[in-house]
TrEMBL record:
InterPro entries: Ester_Hydrolysis_Enzymes, SGNH_hydro_sf. One of its GO terms (molecular function) is phosphatidylcholine lysophospholipase activity. This is Uncharacterized protein.
Length: 652
């Protein structure tokens, strides 16, 4: 179970109460405790950031610390705070996330007459949610709100007790949400020109990529559709100053400097105050870093009078419905590629049905597929780089659990092999900035208590923030041991749709990953093959030239570099049979026929890994002994084919 502590500056503190609570958790069944704190912000800023934070962590439960910021001291209305709380309630209800409220004290609040804790208590009582108010006692705080070491220990005790009580949010009363907009934050990094420099800031696990603007520099931002722009996050520091925004036919100046700008941090502002009264509806806007020096005295240190250097983090927006695709991409749908095997390959199958659902329920997303029936994950991992280069998806969902590879016995070597393949996919996602998801569809014959693949995939999900779904076996939805019937296709389509929704909203975190192995595949048409002849092969979105191998004709294939050759993608069909290969100075035979060869497909076959820069291959005349499941066997001359040479890169 993953629990997110979502709060503000008290939650931000290094080695604070969250870390103390985490240190006391142990054992294989202990929950994973994470946090995100928004130091220096108020709940009416946080409501715009909540969606992306929750999407990033994908928690099972949230402990919400929302009452510690100083907003009570300058609020003119209770409405902004209530809208912020209601937005979290709505998100938790919609996503099935458990929730508990933790009200930590301030020393400048009269708790005998505090509307915030009173409202929190009223809401929690009405919805049946746990709510804990920590009373203010001597020695608890070292300033207005931050705890002493004794206070941190007390907060940790309360957190450990409260997080186990978190409850599902029921249907919300209409008055809480009927006029509540959808709050969101557009990451400027996602839509600003790539040539602009970036700075990464991570404080309290609120990671922000700031797009830098030098004095006098302007960036134009295209949001893809008209939206209400309400505020922003920006760098606040010694060299910041004033940003000028031109949007919706007006010009607005926003200060990104205050008395605390003797160090760099991320600050937030709403245009026109807590209710964003100066918000504008626009599709494009221009933001300029003005060169003016701020006229604000610092609390300590000397002011930097050098050229200004600003940084943009987010644009705060409000919409009438949740956004389903990344901002700036509405005219070009976000492309989600489902990569899989025979279950995914079926024409008119669950992927196509999911794509139809997306047309009406997720119109900013295009779902496509590449599927290679009969292949195994240890072959397919070599092809991903070429598939991604061809289709250029924004996200990839790996459907690899329906292959018989999953039936291999559990062993450390097997888990290491699967890990190497999946982490090679994740490395590709990291390199290309793609989102990622894992879909484990059922395969009859798997023991739920010993499903090493699903267990390993769940670990990837937790480790790298990759959405994961394991669908349980229901034989009523299958027509054989793995392929769905019509009802099953409809069910899988809805399962995939729900995963797609999560994938497009969830940015994976591969920062800590080190992929130890690198896999690749040479498409045959890119290789030096004297006198080679080719034809086109196409099936289930996998389209590629195929080197023809007539019976008895030796063909040499020159590779561009010395690599470890590990296998081939080759033709399986009515005329295929046995290939004779020489890799380096060793001879191998590869059998390319089975009882399903009444039609053409490609298959993957391993070779004993060998270093080579050249291979030779010949189609033998041997007739395969296998009987076909249906149709008459072709007894004529054998004719094979190869589409890719699989390899593993040699480490330096």
């Amino acid at each position: 179970m993953k629990i997110l502590v979502l709060g503000f500056s008290v939650t931000v503190e290094n080695n604070g109460f969250v870390e103390q609570a985490r240190a006391r958790l142990s054992g294989p069944d202990a929950p994973v405790l994470v946090k995100t704190g928004m130091g220096g912000m108020q709940p009416y800023h946080g409501r715009y950031l909540f969606p992306s934070i929750i999407e990033r962590h994908q928690p099972d439960a949230i402990v919400l610390d929302i009452a510690t910021p100083a907003f009570r001291n300058f609020s003119t209305s209770q409405a902004p705070y209530k809208a912020s709380l209601h937005s979290v309630l709505r998100t938790c209800r919609d996503q099935g996330i458990r929730l508990a409220l933790l009200d930590l004290p301030r020393n400048d609040v009269d708790y005998a007459d505090d509307w915030v804790t009173r409202y929190n208590a009223k809401v929690c009582a009405r919805l049946g949610l746990p709510h804990h108010i920590v009373p203010l006692t001597d020695g608890l705080l070292r300033d207005e709100v931050h705890p002493t070491s004794e206070g941190q220990a007390i907060y940790a005790d309360v957190l450990l007790d409260l997080m186990g009580q978190a409850a599902l949010v029921p249907e919300l009363p209409p008055e809480m949400i009927e006029n509540l907009p959808w709050f969101d934050a557009v990451a400027v990094d996602d839509i600003a020109p790539p040539e602009l420099p970036r700075e990464h800031i991570d404080r309290g696990d609120l990671a922000v990529e700031l797009v830098e603007l030098a004095a006098g520099q302007t960036v134009e931002i295209d949001l893809g559709e008209p939206v209400k722009v309400c505020g922003l996050t920006s760098r606040m520091g010694p060299r910041t100053g004033t940003l000028e925004l031109r949007m919706g036919g007006s010009t607005l100046r926003q200060a990104s400097y205050d008395q605390f700008c003797y160090y760099n941090r991320v600050g937030a502002a709403l245009f026109g105050g807590q209710n964003a009264s100066a918000a504008k509806v626009c599709e494009t806007l221009r933001i300029t870093q003005l060169p003016d020096l701020p006229d604000v005295a610092l609390r300590k240190g000397e002011a930097d009078t050098g050229p200004r250097l600003g940084g943009l983090g987010h644009l705060f927006i409000e919409t009438d419905a949740p956004r389903c695709a990344r901002p700036g991409r509405r005219n070009t749908p976000m492309k989600v590629l489902v990569f899989g095997f025979s279950v995914t390959a079926e024409t008119g199958g669950y992927v196509e049905r999911c794509a139809t659902i997306c047309e009406t329920e997720l119109p900013g997303v295009e779902v496509v597929k590449v599927a290679i029936g009969g292949l195994q994950p240890d072959h397919a991992r070599h092809l991903l780089e070429d598939v991604v280069a061809t289709h250029a998806p924004d996200a990839i969902i790996m459907e690899v659990a329906t292959a018989v590879y999953r039936l291999r016995p559990r062993s450390s070597a097997q888990i290491a092999d699967h890990t190497a393949g999946m982490e090679a996919v994740f490395a590709l996602c990291r390199e290309r900035g793609m989102h990622c998801g894992i879909l484990d569809l059922p395969l009859d014959g798997i023991c739920d208590d010993d499903d090493w693949m699903a267990e390993t995939d769940a670990g990837f999900s937790k480790r790298y923030n990759v959405p994961f779904h394991r669908e349980p076996l229901n034989n009523a939805l299958l027509r054989d041991n793995v392929h769905p019937n019509e009802e099953g296709k409809d069910h899988y389509a809805r399962v995939l749709f729900e995963l797609v929704e999560k994938v497009v909203r969830t940015r994976p975190d591969f920062a800590a990953m080190t992929a130890e192995r690198s896999f690749g595949a040479y498409p045959v048409q890119t290789l030096d093959i004297p006198n080679g002849t080719f034809r086109q092969f196409s099936r289930a979105g996998f389209v590629t030239p195929m080197l023809e191998l007539p019976e008895g004709r030796p063909i040499g294939i020159n590779l561009p570099e010395l690599v470890t050759v590990t296998g081939l993608i080759m033709l399986m069909g009515p005329k295929s049979g046995t290939l004779r290969l020489m890799v380096g100075d060793k001879v191998d035979k590869m059998y390319c026929y089975d009882r399903h060869c009444y039609y053409e497909r490609v298959g993957g076959k391993p070779l004993t890994p060998r270093l080579a820069s050249r291979i030779a291959v010949m189609q033998t005349p041997d007739l395969p002994p296998d009987d076909l499941l249906k149709g008459e066997k072709d007894l004529g001359p054998r004719s094979g084919g190869i589409t890719h040479v699989l390899f593993e890169r040699v480490s330096d």
